[in-house]
Amino acid sequence: MKVDLLGVAVENATMDEALRLLETWLKSRDRTRTVYFANAHTLNIAYSDHSYRLLLNRGDIVFGDGTGVRWAARFRGVELRGNVNGTDLTPALLSTTQGHRMYVLGADPASNRAAVDHLRRTFPAWEVVGHHHGYFREPDTATILADIARKEPDLLLVAMGNPLQERWIDRHRRALDVPVVMAVGGLLDYCAGSIYRAPRWLRDLGMEWMHIVWQQPHKAGRYLLGNPAFLYRALVAHRPHFGTVARGSGLEPGPTSSTPRHSL
Long-range CB contacts (< 8 A, 24+ apart) of 12-15? Predict the structure, then answer.
């Protein structure tokens, strides 16, 4: 079931439901499925950029990531049943599945190599069949797409930050014969050890953003200014529903496209 958050249809799912869905998609090579994650920053961009909002809704599924998104859903009268973020979902998927092939695209060259080494050590049941950093020029795209096609991965991780990563996936989707393509943001930096996850207690309090700002001060504006702006937009947009929370419920999705969206 989906909930419309500032025009983006976000799946109301638990982590276990997301894992089961991705496991099913990995076993099928009938078409490429795209997986996006929407946090407050993502939805702020989508609020101001109509084309990006439509792009997200063209994806096969968008999961809600973070405390801000949970609050926005509550303004709509919906209690999100899980915080399905890519930093947690991806390693969980790699831990619970095996015998698949992965291609890793994104981050700077050193972080990309370090992340690949980490993934190979941590998830030996998966084969990393190829990788490329994210600092390439558009003329290099054809070579990268050809390499991905030649390696035939089951999973493609694209870590370029948003909205760049989602735009790249959407632009080249027809050329990607990969069962599951996930836009995973800063995941490779965590894998490379460039940055570290907040302690569990801080995440449980919904304050992981403070730990991110401490490690990456250049993102302070995104959180200190962006989060309040997002909550204000969500409250104004969904004011009629504020104060009435229906656990597990969903509302009609936002802008639609010709690409069918999956629903759990």
Answer: 12/64, 12/73, 12/78, 12/80, 12/81, 12/248, 12/249, 12/250, 12/264, 13/63, 13/81, 13/82, 13/84, 13/264, 14/81, 14/82, 14/84, 15/82, 15/83, 15/84, 15/88, 15/89, 15/92
